[in-house]
Protein 1
Amino acid sequence: MPLVARFRSLLSNLFRGGGASERDLDAEIDATIDLLAEEKERGGLSPEAARRAARIEMAGAEAIKERVRDARHGGALLGWLADVRQALRGMRRTPGWTLIVVVTLGVGLGAATAIFGVVNAVLLKPLPYPHSERLALIWAEFGPTTAAPVSGHQLLAYRERSRLFEAIGGIWVTNAALTGKGEPEQVKVGFVTANLLPLLVDRPALGRHFRVEEEGPGRPPVILLGDALWRRRFGADPAIVGATVQLDGHAVEVVGVLPADFQAAFPEVSRVPPDLDAYIPMPFDLAGGPLDVSYIRLLGRMGARVSARQAQAEADRIGADLQAGFKEYASEHLAFRIAPLHAEVARTSRPAILALSGGVALVLLIACINVASLLLARGAERQREITLRSALGAAPFRLVRLLLTESLCLAVAGGALALLLGTWALRLLVSLQPEGIARSGPIGIDLRVFGFAMAITLIAGVVAGIVPALAATRGTIAEALKRGGRGQAGGAHRARNILIGCEVALGCAVLASAGLMTRTMQALLRVDPGFDAERALSLQLSLSGTRYPDDSSRVEFARRLEERFAALPEVEAAGMGSNLPLDDSLPNWYSPYWRDGMPEAEREGLMADHRSILPGFFGSIGARFLEGRDLDARDVAERRRVAVVDDLLARRMWPGESAVGRRLALETMIAGEFKWETAEVVGVVRHVQFHSLVDEVREQIFIPYSLAARQQISFVLRTTGDPEALAGPARAAVAALDRDLPPARVLPLARYVERARRATRFVSLLAAALAGIALLLAVVGVYGVSSGGVVRRTGEIGVRVALGAGRWDVMRLVLAQGMKPVAIGCLAGTALSVLLAPLYAHLLYGVQALDPPTHAAVAGLLALAGLFACYVPARRAVRLDPLEALRAE
């Protein structure tokens, strides 16, 4: 048949009235029967006998009609639409059962949709930058440090030698005071090379990008404002471009405003926050600065056909060239590492997201198994209908298609509910998200997430419906008639028991992971961070280079402000340090060290965090001295070469000996220049967790503030009352000394501890939620199997009671039947939990992945839940009246 004719026939079959087509088909069938009957009459049969013989010879008129309908153009589609209509009618007839199935699928699909929304935003969606797939970070490596910044000299040298990068830019982040109109405000500023921002955004929302000639010292200062600062501080005034603002006492011209959706997506280890307030061209002499003072984070765009492996080979060559050509790098074993930006931003959050994705997949599978069990139970009630359809000539494939269509309709309804639940769950995830996820950009429902939701909805419909459909059509008509509509065969009952065993096993795996994450969270709550965050208020200050140009002015201001803080009511101790524990908002200063007289060959890999402090800092944060003394006022005033070290350094340098009185070679910063000095160790403190609650990243050296008077400083005030109530008096104390110096991040020190626990709490809460869903679904599934068993064996139970069986005998019978798949599932689930535990072992702390108490407790909890689910039907069976049971039979 020509294509046009086929298409016309298809449209006719689809849109012409179904009644006319069916009337034509009925007429053709009747005419055929009439012809056969006439032939039988000519053979000597009576009219009635001839017509009956003709119908028998037709072998089922309804089956013939079905084959004819399928053979038409569009017949299969018409048949499937008829199945859909019948499925919808069935859903309306059983609203309670339908609601249970839809909610079960909706919860499982909604959880999967929400987690995929996170996976899509963090792992799949490209970063919102031009050619983001070609952006890569260029890390310096010094011994064990694999993600270090570079020096200005290294930046220029890499640019000059690289042939595979189109552009390489750098950034360094600091704080600055924005004054002038309105209250003074401390803002987070990124000092950047002129070519960095064009790598991340095509053009500003207002104004222009920086020019190359605006880099370097002595150039007229210019600034690009972030959208949030522009709206908050300047009322979104478009005339701000070309105007000047006061930053650290300097008049700075505004050359543009960045787009509202722009943020700098750098990894956490870079200490470049995503919400920078403003950007300024790099004001330093990159070429003339110290070769080995590293502070710049490098970002480059690789060429169009350049792979990360090729770029890494070039980086290895450049690192070797620099180390061979400059004596300053000879002892540092300098190397460079190329890290694609997207992978590096997602690196810290990827393990948790993948682990949660696995948990959600198990929950969704449990939901599908639960629905399959419900469909199997319903199949028992519909056995008479299915038998009748088979008797009328319906082919097994036709019945399977009908049952799968019903399952898919239920799944689609569950998918619609899942989109609502998934949207709500995504909002909850956004409110709980840890820092690593927040840096990856906005999380929400887009076309990819919607497509995923639709795909898993269809897959869930098939997975949940295929076993019940096959089970319902497997038996013969004779077997179904023998059962007389009394329920399913033993094979279908065994299938339900197997499904419930699988459901319990999967639930056991989800509960075990949640239990281990709960144990991890408990361990984090008990961990000793080396300081006491309770009843302590912290704040940050950025000392202007114009108002505090030298070390002595900074030391004097910090000393006077510390005295004012100490004099405030309810303040027990006040201290100042260059960095706060667990705060990554300020640049981290770390450099090599070695004990006096140490052979050069043994110095490799020695790296310590340096902190410049005033006396009283350890008391304000609650750090504990292990030996020796604290720094004192004379150490600061006389710039004594003394230091306090942590116990990690003391054990490494002088194992089994006292560190007090020993001497260290370390880096200091006098008048803005880094110098190597030999300092005497006067005390040893317990290691303070500056970077992580659980990882001892580096050893620590604390020196007097006068030996490294940094512009960014932090204060801690330990109080006898509520630390937040001290925020107002603390701000007033700063204003009394310098009204143009705005404090920033005025927060209780405990907030930093809570932030450090946030990622683990995020995973723990989601794991607990998934475990709760899995447990609920398992209980519902076990209850359904046990309750169905009671209904199926009502007559048998009635006979047993009539013959003298006691209540305990009946209850033991029902409990044994229901608990058998539960027990098998618990054993299989424990084995599955042990097999899966290594996959998320890296997320655990303070507990082993193969923790016997946790796995035993989970198995016991599931067994108790299963026992409760079986007890309710068992109690109903005990109360059966034998006469009523036999009458029902």
Note: The longest strand covers residues 165-179.
Protein 2
Amino acid sequence: MKTRCVLLLVGISSFASPNRIHAGSGDVPVIRIRSGGDTALDADWRFMKDSTIAAEGAGVDDSGWRLLDLPHDWSIEDLQDGPGGGSIGPFSKESPGGSSTGHTIGGVGWYRKHFSLRGAEGKVVSVLFDGVYMDCDAWINGRHLGGHPYGYTPFFFDLTKGLKPEGEDNVLAVRVRNLGRNSRWYSGSGIYRHVFLTVKSPVHAARWGIAISTPEVTQDRAVVTVKTTLENASAMEAKVVIRNRFLDPDGKKAGQCETRLDVPAHGSAESVRTVAILKPRLWSPETPSLYRLDVEILSNGKGADRTSQAFGIRSVRFDAADGFLLNGRKTALRGACMHHDNGPLGSAAIDRAEERRVELLKAAGFNAVRTSHNPPSVPFLDACDRLGMLVIDEAFDMWERPKNPQDYHRFFADWWQRDLEAMILRDRNHPSVILWSIGNEINERADSSGIVIGRRLAGEAHRLDPTRAVTAAICSFWDHPGRPWQDTESAFSILDVGGYNYQWREYVPDHERSPQRIMVGTESFPMEAFESWNPVEKNPWVIGDFVWTGMDYLGEAGIGNVQAVPDSVNPQFGMPWPWFNAFCGDIDLCGFKKPQSYYRDVVWDRSSLEMAVHAPMAEGLVEKPSLWGWPDERRSWTWPGLEAKIMKVSVYSRCPEVRLELNGEPVGEKRISPDSKWTAVFDVPYSPGILRASGLVDGKEAVSRSLRTAGPAHRIRLIPDRNVIRPDRNDLSYVTVEIVDASGILVPDSGALVRFSVQGDGELAAVGNGNPRDMRSFRKPECAVFQGKCLAILRPDGVTGAITLSAESQGLDPASVVVKTR
């Protein structure tokens, strides 16, 4: 029996239906939309992972296929039959990408969506994909719409000519091929971002056809420029009126204008208008104020199209003498590089997951993110706009020369212009975006061929968006042994802002050679946080630093490892099976801050005092972190069985002097300064109790931190990030799971296995912990805590009600929590 979805043209809404993972019979729920709007087409897709079938035709029997909601990533799901028994959860020893992609599996997957239309006669109907990984093709009712190879840029197809008459069953089929070694990190597989259906009148604003800029900005007045590109799909010229209405962050009218123009038959036309807004509320990370532009389009006296666009009013300027100026104010970029996955959810770009990553970065002190090494999702940028996060929007990780045999280099020559255009036109209205990056560590960056390509990319970026500067991440010639750093001069010459990967030592020499160059550390090592930030504080021409990375991610397994080994053993670049996550982030895979993030708080002068304890090592071994690693420190004074053993305690502070006490008895005092990198290290014989550090100014205590020894594990504690969420499949509740003692103190050495159950109007979307080598399913209702913590993610079914999460573990008091959906 064929399924059918009736699309009623009545109002924009996001999908809301349960993630039915087993095929069922009966009709698919109704999706309600309004003509002219983008309507989420995420619910109720049929899915089959199979490389042998041909499923593009409308008559294919898909009634036995799995029924699911988008966004969807099949690579994060449990493997059914591991090759040779070498599989755990989603991980397989047969993974083509190996440790680079976190030992996960790609393959070929098919998606099919049934729907019928009412009231679309005479309209233009299109489908928009925000991201599909990768190399996909799409069909409507067996008619090939086209393909799209890049896994990170949006694309759309016109469905109009391929649709069946009103009321009949249409089938949109998508084939996705994630084959071979094509990524250096976890990519995920499938339609992992949103899909939208658009129904418009013949005369309408083009896709991404509204460009808003703010060429003049002061505290008293801002000039807002709006360029509107109209399309006319009809056979008659259209006399058009465009009405622009500007609303301030409170929804009050801030300005308006009207334009009349003629749009030729089967053609397009542009309108450019400016409006002055008085006393503007400027967008910044501290005050992310958003305005809205409502656009109404009338054609030959009749309403033809309506659309809205959020935007921010801000000025951006880069200058070697003054640095980066946002709204005329010098701003240092406290940056994080970020891959696109959402940890236990894989690459699925669920709105709340994207938003939470931005919240976590803000809470950890970051004010900027580099979307390494590809364009992000729309929900991620929307969150950056709302929450106040500056963005370097990056296009490519390679150009014509490969980094993996099956990567994007195969398509670059034919597709770079379309993909760069899609990124810039889609993202240019986001006030958070301040720089376009055209590449990361490009192999041919300083060769004659690479200079030609780089100039084309930079030129096209400036043509598409004259309001923003262009950068790229330049690294040393590790891929061309023997070439001197000075050979990068030609690569920097094509950039407005020079991006430096791990090259803080070159800032001053390069400034002496090129005093007008503006520099930013596009990647840096965690253990060089002080060395990478010090030049930002001292030199205006170094505008910021972006650590690799802000948050742990799947793939590049173990590049942030730290090992206790004999002194003769060198640190490893990465780690073999069973390591699956990079473990180099300031924040772990589940969103918990790691010790390096607390040190960065002091380096950035966000905190006056922090403290951590090194884990002890066996005799004859030394601690050797990898380049992206961090010493094995814990914010813990719970070390049972190590009584009287000497523990190294690091105290980080901006105070001139620090004092350490154990159980009220003095351990010692030490001076602290930039020369010591804001660090003092004490040797302390372990004894349970309270370890207390204090910062002294003029000999008096100004600030203190304490670590308290935990007792035996007693109970489970559940802490949801929000107790009330929307009854929407795009919302989530992240529940922190902690093992605590009888006094409620976290037991940091616990590794208890916690089992979960869920009742009510939702599901357990995923579980996980921060352990980079704890391979297990993210989908089964159990998880071992790591350093006393793990995470459970709840997803609503799409109805108003409540979700109850219960947790139990052998020998511990259980816990439960209720999350309401309304």
Note: The radius of gyration is 28 Å.
